[in-house]
Amino acid sequence: MTHLINHYATHQAEVRPEATAIVAGAKKLTYAELEQQSNRLANLLIRAGCERGDRICLFVDKTPAAVVAMHGVMKADCVYVPIDITSPTPRVQMILESCRPRLILVDESGVRLASESLSHMSETQSPMVGTMEASDVVGSQCVFYESDLLDAEPAPPGSKNAPCDPAHILFTSGSTGTPKGVVISHQNVVHFVDWGREYFGIGPDDRVSGHPPLHFDLSTFDIYGSIASGAELHMVPAKANLLPKLLSSFIRDSRLTQWFSVPSALTMMARSETIDHNDFPDLRRLLWCGEVLPTPTLIHLMERLPHIQFTNLYGPTETTIASSYYTVPECPTDPQEQIPIGEACTGEQLFVLDDQLQAVEQGTQGDLYISGEGLSLEYWEDRKKSEAVFLQPDERLGLPEKIYKTGDLAYQGKDGLFNFLGRNDSQIKSRGYRIELGEIETAMNALGILKDCAVVGVPTGGFEGTAICCAFVPEAEADVTSQVIRSQASGLLPRYMLPARWLSFESLPKTGNGKTDRKKLKEMFAEAMQAESQTVS
């Protein structure tokens, strides 16, 4: 029985040592190599003075060596913190100051960012440095190099970690501008991985996509779900995310049997017409999570790929990968049909509650809460934020166990399935009407003339209250203007729900996780509105 995440790889190295574990372009790693190399790294970390619970920041690209680093850190009883190597230096500095790593691991792709980040830290604060596939030395704190890995002890070090101990910390965006660290334990990940590989039937004959970046929690299931099953993990190159034709070719050429990503990657392929009828003959299942997949995109995919199982997964980072699932039984016929987030995964519970933390009736909108095995331990060293959303058991409030306030709105239908309605802060009041922005997006996507769109609310301070703003990407070679969109949308939406402001894009801005950057869009609309008011005055 698996107790720690790294036990998956150890088991596979015992039963399938020569089987391929990871593929990234021309680079491959067998299970025996993954086990031995991570053992060597763990022993180097311990020799350098790393102790149980120490944080190790990973300034590494998405390569087989990165997976070795993750396992090596966990085998040393430490906690890994994946760094987005495309992040601006000030953000990374905040993460370093927050988690206070004992050591950072760097490959060539992370050298510049690591060097810049460390240059602003005092000598007493600066962590040690170890290099992996890096030719440049980062500062004077380097305690071991890539070459040292070859000479390190290949036997596994003794482990003292327990399942409840932290495995990694994922830093996500904070509302105050300061990244917040979500602490995820071994048992959090093991619970979901064991559920996922059983439900989806993942096995040694599978070839699984590794699409999300390593600092995004979806990658956790790709990596450990694949390794737990003895499957092959095929890492998707970053450049493919910008080219839908290349992404589709990757699925074909790698003969993937499972694909898991945020919806934007699927929308990009669908809108670019890069998927043929009965395409991807080896693909058996397609999973998405992180955002709402527009129903027209789902229809497009299901019509062309009738042999594939389509599953919608839902869950914030704070609840470890996903807490609910819904496998779509048949292709929708209505482009405005809402796809449920489904039912709770085994060991999880979803609740729709009112402001008094009381359950609402079926079909009634409320705040979505989650409890169960996936709940994060806490936010890293932030008691105030933790207490605001991780509510402890309280008999007076009728809370028998710890629950997490997602900040999302939902309702449970009479069929028992949960339906996502959007963020709590995506419900706005405009001209006296309460409006759910997600409903407007659904209508816009149903028009069939847009590649992509996002609707955000921007406070005006006047009678309007909050302006409804639509950012859109028109279909190629189509004469699509805001007037055309508004005219067609008026047949689906009441007048008061029609956007008042519009911005056209070649592609919508995305966050590092591939989600639509709504914060950036709000800023752009606010700037445009301010410039407009100054011109008028």
Description:
The protein has 537 residues and is an alpha/beta fold. The protein has four domains: 30-185, Rossmann fold, CATH 3.40.50; 190-344, ANL, N-terminal domain (Rossmann fold, 3-Layer(aba) Sandwich), CATH 3.40.50.12780; 348-422, Luciferase, Domain 3 (Luciferase, domain 3, Roll), CATH 2.30.38.10; 431-536, ANL, C-terminal domain (GMP Synthetase, Chain A, domain 3), CATH 3.30.300. The termini are far apart. The protein contains 15 helices and 27 strands. β12 (258-261), α10 and β13 (285-288) form a beta-alpha-beta unit.
For the secondary structure, the number of strands is: 27
Strand numbers in spatial order across the main sheet: 4-3-5-6-7
The dominant shape is globular
Q: What structural class results from the helix and strand content? A: alpha/beta
**Text of the CATH class of the largest domain:** Alpha Beta
Q: How many domains would you count in the coordinates? A: 4
Classify the beta-strand content into a percent band: 15-25%
Number of helices: 15
* CA gyration radius, whole angstroms: 24 Å
The parts where pLDDT drops under 50 for at least 5 residues are none
CATH topology of the largest domain: Rossmann fold
Mean pLDDT: 91
How far is the N terminus from the C terminus? 70 Å
